[in-house]
Write a structure and sequence with these properties.
By secondary structure, this protein is of the alpha+beta class. The chain contains 17 helices and nine strands.
Length: 522
């Protein structure tokens, strides 16, 4: 044997040993799960026995079930009790002569011990008492399985909670079975069998706009109003109410893992398509085995099925996303875009809150240490506002006075004295002109605007927020308050810090990562 062959055999042996070791490790990991599956199955079996005993009805091959026995025992006791009470009521006078005043004394009287009515009553009473003990034992038995029934115990209530408990255990069992290969296959076969009965047969038909030249369009009828319209190259329309599902869809979601649902649905879909009926013949004849029909069926298998299955898979993935988002507390998520928006909104709100907090700090540094008023996105500095209002009022008065001075100057200039009083006239005119000059400075538009802006900025502060953002809404909804400038923002800062420190839920990030394959298919 050559060296190459020897080394090849050695490498093969190493590979085999590694595969065996890997398989052994895998089996060791699966062993605890298999044990857990058996334990859950054991509990399920015991509960089903109790439930079966409750429901059991007597027949050729079976005795009475608990419910039936209970009803019979209760009715029998009522009958014997009524009969004995009737006898006592009819014969009260006779019974008193022998010292019997009530039912208990009658039952204890040795003269009547062997009478049929007494024997039957005592027997029915004993059976009723034993039944009550059995009911207590049943309640204790159910309690051992974590089923606690309150004081209003009845077989109906026991059956109801048993059914619910068994359903929970079946879901738990399915979850564990899905972790082992044989269990997963068992679940898939179970689901296929269920879906086979639930999903109606499919049929193919021509689309309304079908023609042999330009529009070779067909329709796959899935039952009810569900259908897929397609051509030889693509899906044209998928008309289903939300997803390809049945009324029991939610129960399926709770019990079966989604990969099992998808695999089962894929097999059922392929099977239903393969066995679908055809309400037409491609060639126009009624010969179902024409060449055209065979080619059409091949097209369905090779082209339509992969496209349809991919489309259905996206639908199922979206259903899985919706279900997982709901149970993880993210609300009614419609698609991956919704998760994306949740993440983006939290991040955007955080950024906005931080920017607004930064703006508030800047405002605080500029505020005087005094009472201020916060109203929505505006803050008023009371003392500065008084100064501002005073400035506006004084400016208005100066503008009015300026008009008066100009008018007075015009009058003086029109009535200039020729000889007497000229000196006084000059003094008055010069005084008015000086006043006009001063007033013009104090009412100059540019000067006024600069002074107005300075005072306005000291009187009013705007809290920076993005329009229509969550942060703007919080700031605007703050109640109007008056407080010292060092404390005025305390409540608002607490709210904004909560937003700034909020983290995107781990569940949202995990779902976004898990369902990233849907981003391009949304």
């Amino acid at each position: 044997m050559s060296l190459e062959n020897k080394l090849s055999q050695l490498s093969s042996k190493i590979r085999e040993n590694k595969e065996k070791e890997s398989k052994k490790l895998q089996e060791e990991k699966l062993e605890p799960i298999r044990f857990k599956v058996k334990e859950i199955e054991k509990v399920k079996s015991q509960l089903e026995l109790i439930l079966g005993s409750l429901k059991l009805k007597s027949g050729k091959d079976s005795g009475m079930g608990m419910r039936e026995y209970s009803t019979k025992t209760e009715n029998n006791f009522k009958k014997e009790n009524t009969q004995l009470d009737s006898l006592i009521n009819k014969n009260q006078e006779a019974l008193k002569t022998i010292g019997v005043e009530n039912k208990d004394q009658l039952l204890e009287n040795s003269d009547f011990t062997n009478d049929e009515e007494i024997i039957n009553y005592k027997k029915s009473k004993t059976q009723k008492e034993n039944l009550e003990l059995s009911d207590l034992a049943l309640k204790d038995r159910l309690l051992s399985f974590g089923i606690n029934i309150d004081e209003n115990f009845s077989y109906d209530s026991a059956e109801k909670v048993l059914n619910k408990k068994i359903e929970q255990i079946e879901n738990e069992l399915a979850l564990e079975k899905a972790k082992i290969p044989e269990g997963k296959q068992e679940l898939k076969e179970e689901l296929i069998q269920y879906l086979e009965k639930k999903i109606p047969s499919f049929s193919f038909s021509k689309a309304k706009n079908f023609d042999h030249y330009n529009n070779k369009n067909y329709v796959l009828n899935l039952g009810g109003y569900n259908n897929i319209e397609f051509s030889e190259s693509r899906i044209l329309r998928f008309n289903t109410p939300g997803s390809f599902s049945m009324g029991e869809w939610q129960k399926l979601e709770e019990k079966y893992p989604y990969d099992v649902i998808r695999e089962a649905m894929k097999e059922i879909f392929e099977k239903k398509v393969a066995n679908a009926s055809y309400s037409f013949d491609i060639s126009g004849s009624y010969d179902r085995e024409t060449k055209e029909m065979k080619e059409y069926k091949d097209m369905i298998k090779s082209k339509f099925l992969p496209i349809a299955e991919n489309m259905l898979n996206v639908r199922f993935r979206n259903d899985e996303l919706r279900y997982k988002a709901k149970i993880q507390g993210l609300g009614n998520v419609s698609n991956i875009t919704y998760i994306e928006r949740i993440i983006q909104k939290i991040e955007s709100d955080k950024d906005e809150a931080k920017k607004t907090l930064s703006g508030i700090i800047q405002i605080e540094n500029e505020l005087p240490n005094e009472e201020v008023v916060l109203s929505g996105v505006y803050l008023e500095v009371t003392s500065a506002l008084k100064e501002y209002n005073k400035f506006v009022k004084e400016t208005e008065e100066k503008e009015k006075r300026l008009k008066e001075v100009i008018s007075e100057i015009e009058k003086l200039e029109m009535n200039k004295p020729k000889l007497f009083g000229k000196e006084k006239w000059n003094d008055n005119l010069n005084t008015l002109k000086k006043e006009r000059e001063e007033l013009e400075k104090r009412t100059d538009k540019k000067w006024y605007q600069e002074e107005n802006n300075k005072l306005y900025k000291k009187a009013y502060f705007y809290i920076p927020t993005k329009e229509y953002s969550s942060v703007e809404k919080i700031v605007k909804e703050q109640p109007k308050i008056q407080a010292n400038s060092k404390e005025i923002f305390n409540d608002l800062k607490i709210k904004l810090n909560e937003i700034a420190n909020k983290e995107v839920p781990e569940s949202a990030l995990n779902l976004y990562k898990e369902f990233s394959d849907l981003i391009e298919k949304k």
